[in-house]
Amino acid sequence: MLVGLLGRGIQLSRTPAMHEAEGRAQGLAYVYRLFDTELMGNRAPPIAEIIRFAEFFGFSGFNVTFPYKQEILPLLDGLSQAARRIGAVNTVVLKAGKRFGHNTDVWGFRESFRAGMAGATCDRVLLLGAGGAGAAVAHALLDCGVERLAIADVEPERAGTLVQNLEAGFGAGRAVVVHDLPKAAKAAQGIVNATPVGMAKLPGMPIPADCIEARHWVADIVYFPLETELLRAARRKGCRTLSGEGMAVFQAVRAFELFTGIAPDADRMKAAFAAFTHEPAE
């Protein structure tokens, strides 16, 4: 079975290790390859050509990550209910000449949040990022009982579109666009980063450190590196934190089942994630 990951700057991804280890454990000849457009430089083809390449060489499917989770939508033949509701795809199954898009991110973050932030006060939460990953996280947070979600994005129009989508599904007043980060952080009990800021290829913090207080809980979906600058700053202030590990593992569990039709062992995939040691130097 041949599958892959489409994204930019993904050489440190732990997803291949998780999938291939579980494939071996299931007795499958399972190969996971990267389509990293950053390595292709100015010669990177349109993603439509990359998909045709995958189809020609017999891929069973591929995962999709930053920055293509929304761009890929028009290139697909069908969407799962979750992908349609969220407006983003992170898993594509290639079958019988068709391309079917799914979203396992929302389930992945929801499971991670419920396990890692049990009991956290979440009446008001600040979400940073309204792209493909942000849309999935937003749905998951509201599913988990967040009463009011404040959403900030470098593209306010994108945040506005997400708010409209959320209000259509969850009701008016459940989400709002914010422009003043210090003010929004002051009103929130929790802060979630769903932007790529903090990745090894995009170091930094998506919010000024002085916006974070000890009373906050802080979650990050970035997992390479696992210890982002945001989480490091939050821990120094005594905040309860949640890394991107849980979301990365749980979304991969669902994706593996979509690719293979076999239910994987989540604990085994988590162990494979933890065993992967290719962290960037501090």
Largest sheet: 6 strands, mixed
Flag low-confidence runs. none
| SSE topology string | EHEHHEEHEEHEHEHEHEEHEHH
Helix content: 25-40%
If you compute it from the alpha carbons, what radius of gyration comes out, rounded to the nearest whole angstrom? 18 Å
Q: Please, what is the average pLDDT? A: 95
Distance between the termini: 36 Å
Count of DSSP H/I helices? 11
DSSP strand (E) fraction? 15-25%
Which structural category do the helix and sheet elements fall into?
alpha/beta
Largest sheet strand order:
2-1-3-5-6-4
Keywords:
six-stranded mixed sheet; 12 strands; alpha/beta; 282 residues; six-stranded parallel sheet
What does this protein structure show overall?
The chain is globular, with a radius of gyration of 18 Å. The mean pLDDT is about 95. The strands form 2 sheets. A 6-stranded mixed sheet has the order 2-1-3-5-6-4, sandwiched between helices. Strands 9-8-7-10-11-12 form a 6-stranded parallel sheet, sandwiched between helices. The protein is built from 11 helices and 12 strands. It has helices at about 15-25, 35-40, 45-55, 80-85, 105-115, 130-145, 155-170, 180-185, 230-235, 245-260, 265-275, and strands at about 1-5, 30-35, 60-65, 80, 90-95, 100, 125-130, 150, 175, 190-195, 215-220, 240. With about 280 residues, it is of the alpha/beta class. β5 and β6 (about 100) form a beta hairpin.
Give the gist of this structure:
The protein is of the alpha/beta class.
What is the fold's blueprint, element by element?
Elements (H helix, E strand, L loop, with lengths): L1 E6 L7 H11 L5 E6 H4 L6 H10 L4 E4 L13 E2 L1 H6 L4 E5 L2 E5 L2 H12 L7 E5 L3 H12 L4 E5 L3 H15 L4 E3 L3 H7 L2 E4 L23 E4 L8 H8 L3 E3 L2 H16 L5 H10 L7
Parallel strand pairs: 1-2, 1-3, 4-6, 7-8, 7-10, 8-9, 10-11, 11-12
Antiparallel strand pairs: 3-5, 5-6
Helix pairs in contact: 1-11, 5-6, 5-10, 10-11
